[in-house]
Design goal:
This protein is of the alpha/beta class and 299 residues long. The chain has two domains: 36 residues; 242 residues, Alpha-Beta Barrel (TIM Barrel). It is built from twelve helices and nine strands. Strands 1-2-4-5-6-7-8-9 form an eight-stranded parallel β-barrel, surrounded by four helices. Strand 6, helix 8 and strand 7 form a beta-alpha-beta unit. Helix 3 runs parallel beside helix 5 and helix 6 packs across helix 7. It starts with a helix and ends in a 5-residue tail after the last helix.
């Protein structure tokens, strides 16, 4: 029996409606799963939680501070070439809000310049010698920019912990996150800070880039503090974790990780490894690696 014109129009309307519904569902799926990559898990970022006596990952402090001037490209190259789990660097802002690698609030200790970094422009910082203090062989080594560091990291297979030093505003954090994303490093970089506000700005700028909360003193409810910061773990002082070793199990139970800074001798390595911490920040990653190979059968 032939279809009437009315039934044909009704069928066409139903067909069009089905197409619209399918497209709407597809758009929602893309929005939920395509446009917003999954956040990096603690396991992906820092590995499985360690057990007492198990080797912690190694983070080379301020680049490779034992072998080259700290927070410079030669130090970073040494750490990346050494194949350590993470290279750790400090990034602070100049007077014109440009991010450079510098630990101290002043440039006096690690360059031939004087004064607060926040009072110097990028062009002024770039004229400084950041290598001679360490060894004459590094004379003329400049203070690197965050951009230069990320270029070096992207060219390697390494991962990085970047500490945000001093006060960062939303624009500066957004620019740093953008630089990380532009090199597709979101899953290889963790941004760390003592300042929960800075970590909140990171969260606002990226759903992917991981955050680590740095603690000199451990709050009574450390698990809640880490959760409120949206962090994948803590970087905590040696003294704090040895004074309260139970936090390792507390944080592991909450699905987060514990990294200890900055340990440079085997007595401290032994003490924190026995607690099952997940990472150790050190100026001497080569010796720590050798110690781990010899310690209680650690592979």
């Amino acid at each position: 029996m032939p279809h009437s014109a009315a039934s044909d129009r009704a069928r066409d309307r139903i067909h069009a409606l089905l197409i619209v519904c399918v497209l709407a569902v597809v758009s929602m799926v893309i929005a939920l799963f395509g446009a917003a990559p999954a956040r990096v898990t603690a396991r992906e970022l820092l590995g499985d939680p360690r057990t007492p006596g198990e080797a912690a990952f190694i983070a080379s402090h301020r680049g490779g501070a034992a072998t080259a001037p700290e927070n410079t490209l030669p130090a970073i190259a040494a750490a990346l070439d050494g194949g350590f789990d993470y290279v750790e660097v400090d990034v602070a802002l100049t007077a014109d809000r440009q991010p450079v690698l510098m630990h101290d609030a002043t440039v006096d200790r690690t360059t031939d310049g004087h004064g607060r970094l926040s009072a110097l422009t990028l062009s002024e910082v770039r004229t400084l010698d950041a290598g001679s203090w360490f060894d004459p062989a590094y004379a003329g080594t400049p203070v690197p920019t965050l951009d230069e560091f990320l270029e070096a990291l992207a060219a390697s297979r390494g991962r990085a912990i970047i500490e945000l030093k001093g006060e960062w505003d939303a624009a500066a954090v957004a620019a740093a996150v953008s630089q990380i994303a532009a090199r597709e490093l979101e899953r290889r970089v963790a941004l760390a800070s003592f300042d929960a506000r800075s970590l909140a700005l990171v969260a606002a700028g990226s759903e992917v880039v991981s955050r680590l909360l740095i603690l000199k003193h451990v709050p009574a409810d450390v698990v809640s503090a880490v959760a409120e910061a949206g962090a994948r773990g803590v970087i905590v002082s040696r003294k704090a974790v040895l004074d309260r070793p139970g936090i390792v199990d507390e944080l592991h139970a909450a699905g987060t990780r514990v990294v200890v800074y900055t340990l440079n001798d085997d007595a401290y390595w032994d003490a924190v490894t026995a607690l099952g911490v997940d990472g150790i920040v050190t100026d001497d990653p080569h010796t720590l690696s050798q110690w781990q190979e010899a310690y209680a059968g650690i592979p």
